[in-house]
Amino acid sequence: MLERPAISNHTSRNGSPLRPPYSGTGSFKPNSASLGDDVHPIINEGRVAVITGAASGIGHAAALELAKLKLKIAIADIDERKLEQVGKQVAAIVGEANVLVVPTDVSKIDQVVSFKDKVYEQWGEVAVLMNNAGIGLKGGSSWEGLNAWKTIFDVNLFGILNVQQTFVPSMIHQENQGMIINTGSKQGITNPPGNPAYNASKAAVKSLTESLAHELRQRPDPNVTAHLFIPGWTHTGMTSTSSGSAKPPGAWSAEETVLYMLDKVRAGDFYILVPDNETRKELDELRIMWSAGDIVERRPALSRWERGYKALFEEYVRDGMAGVQGRD
Ligand SMILES: NC(=O)c1ccc[n+]([C@@H]2O[C@H](COP(=O)([O-])OP(=O)(O)OC[C@H]3O[C@@H](n4cnc5c(N)ncnc54)[C@H](O)[C@@H]3O)[C@@H](O)[C@H]2O)c1
């Protein structure tokens, strides 16, 4: 049963900072080499990693990190020029024979099928499928901008679904174990005002990936696992104001986010909720609990941003974080 956010006794309307004082999570710095110290059946030398949206940001960092762990790397992206450059960087780590560069628009099923055929023709298997391509395009409000909504859903939801439906039927018939990592977003869980189309697309990815994980577990021989990767604020092409801009102190680098993700998938986690230098894990958890609490407490939708509930939410967070900070 869902634990109720402890708000019933709260009557104080005293304001408190939305983000309680916090000295930072500290960056996550496992050495990527150490991730490969013990033999993992999937993230392992000689196995195959497929990464979409690999020309930039998180996908780019994932291609480099998995190459350092000596996997063969197949990368796809709609941006052909940048993808070629990433292909060269990956080849410098694993050698040209171990890189496959396939310009692909994930929203186009025929291109995804052709990408998959190339990977299986070349290497005959997939161990890690990182279903990561996404766009942060600003959609309209909830009652406007239908075209932008469709564009966002075509990439962020149907792109993920195209890749999943094309690769998973082959992966489940492989002898070796595999994993599929779909990239969601905290915005798909807590639904902050601002970009409803992006939020809705990522909420759908969460739902889709939960169903996928369950369905895979029901198979008599569950050799493929699914994971929902929920990055924190990561300095990438999507979040930068201009190309080459410096990383804001609150954000993690793409490398940090990827190393954290790899650490958690290796541990078998399904929900990989990644912190950043501004939002620690416990604060994310409180926000998620508050959001679920809107339903059970019969509060208005998105009460966290509603004038009448703002102070209560802030107090809920302050109380929740007090114990945590005591442990620091
Ligand atoms: N950066 C963050 O703070 C953050 C937070 C939460 C979730 N995410 C998610 O992480 C994923 C990676 O984003 P990023 O931050 O690295 O952004 P990014 O813009 O740096 O990288 C996204 C890549 O996807 C590619 N892409 C876009 N449309 C495509 C298509 N139709 N087919 C193939 N490739 C396509 C882009 O060309 C780009 O190279 C996205 O799904 C994004 O929604 C990012």
From TrEMBL:
Keyword Ribosomal protein: no
Keyword Magnesium: no
Gene3D superfamilies per record: NAD(P)-binding Rossmann-like Domain
Family matches, as InterPro entries: NAD(P)-bd_dom_sf, Sc_DH/Rdtase_CS, SDR_fam
PROSITE patterns, per database record: ADH_SHORT
Spans annotated as Disordered: 1-30
The entry's keywords: NADP, Oxidoreductase
Transmembrane segments: none
Family recorded in the similarity comment: Belongs to the short-chain dehydrogenases/reductases (SDR) family.
PANTHER family linked: BENZIL REDUCTASE, SHORT CHAIN DEHYDROGENASE_REDUCTASE (AFU_ORTHOLOGUE AFUA_2G00830)
Listed name of the protein: NAD(P)-binding protein
Naturally occurring in which organism (per UniProt): Gymnopus androsaceus JB14
Taxonomic lineage of the native organism: Eukaryota, Fungi, Dikarya, Basidiomycota, Agaricomycotina
